Amino acid sequence: MLEQAGIAAVLIDADGVLQRTPQDWYDVLHGLGGAGFPEACFELERPSLRGDGNFRDHMQAHIDEHALPCTVDDVLEPWLRIELDEGAMAVVADVRAAGTPCYLATNQQSVRAAHMRSALPYEDVLDGSFYSYELGAAKPDPAYFTHIVERLGVPPEQLLFVDDRADNVAAARSVGLAAEEVPQHDHGATLRRIFTAYGLL
């Protein structure tokens, strides 16, 4: 990690960084549809992360086709069971208080994004959100970051992106962003070290 001056805004991933997903996610889906069902669900979700169709509709069609004994709401339940990492959120609040805008930069389909907007405080505690389904591209596609650069009107080298996946970090760097990888769910400890190293705290 190198200290870098001139960061105008921070982009922060959601799952694994600012929020936790259920540890029993896979088991819940397996219980609903049996072997192979969790993998099928994640594959069905993939197009909707880019805004290509609605995940609820994709899931309903799959349930009907395979006559599964579950509802779409049953399947969506673990997607909508989200816990904030309060330690990480506190670090973000400190960065904003010090004068640097912070934005959510996350892969989400429209159903889960709507839940995050209504049930979680991101709209009130961040300066904006970049949901992949609205941008028409999902990480690690470099186009995801290009769209954000265009929308913010900020040179890419003045944007700092943090994520828990190395491929997403590499994609951000490929279009000129400063980017750092963080471990999952460390309560903001690594975020604080990164933001301090970049002179944001």
Commentary on this structure:
This protein has 201 residues and is an alpha/beta fold. It folds into 2 domains: 9-21 and 82-197, HAD superfamily/HAD-like (Rossmann fold, 3-Layer(aba) Sandwich); 25-80, no CATH class. Helix content is 49%, strand content 13%. The protein contains 11 helices and 7 strands. The protein has helices at 25-33, 37-49, 55-66, 72-76, 86-97, 110-119, 122-125, 132-135, 142-152, 166-174, 189-197; strands at residues 9-12, 19-20, 83-84, 102-106, 128-131, 159-163, 178-181. Strands 5-4-1-6-7 form a 5-stranded parallel beta sheet. A two-stranded antiparallel ribbon has the order 2-3. Strand 6, helix 10 (166-174) and strand 7 (178-181) form a beta-alpha-beta unit. Helix 5 (86-97) packs parallel to helix 11. The protein starts with 8 loop residues before the first strand and ends with a helix.
Summarize the structure.
The protein has helices at residues 25-33, 37-49, 55-66, 72-76, 86-97, 110-119, 122-125, 132-135, 142-152, 166-174, 189-197; strands spanning 9-12, 19-20, 83-84, 102-106, 128-131, 159-163, 178-181. The protein is an alpha/beta fold and 201 residues long. The protein has 2 domains: 9-21 and 82-197, HAD superfamily/HAD-like (Rossmann fold); 25-80, no CATH class.
Category by helix and strand content: alpha/beta
Secondary structure tally, helices: 11
- The run of helices and strands is EEHHHHEHEHHEHHEHEH
- Radius of gyration over all CA atoms, rounded: 18 Å
Percent in helix: 40-55%
Determine the mean pLDDT: 95
CATH superfamily of the largest domain: HAD superfamily/HAD-like
Tell me the distance between the termini. 16 Å
Write down the CATH class of the largest domain: Alpha Beta
Largest sheet: 5 strands, parallel
How many domains is the backbone divided into?
Answer: 2
Unreliable segments of 5+ consecutive residues: none
Architecture (CATH level 2) name of the largest domain: 3-Layer(aba) Sandwich
Shape summary: globular
For the largest sheet, list the strands in their spatial order: 5-4-1-6-7
The CATH topology annotation of the largest domain reads as: Rossmann fold
Based on DSSP secondary structure assignment, what is the total number of beta strands?
A: 7
Strand percent estimate: 5-15%
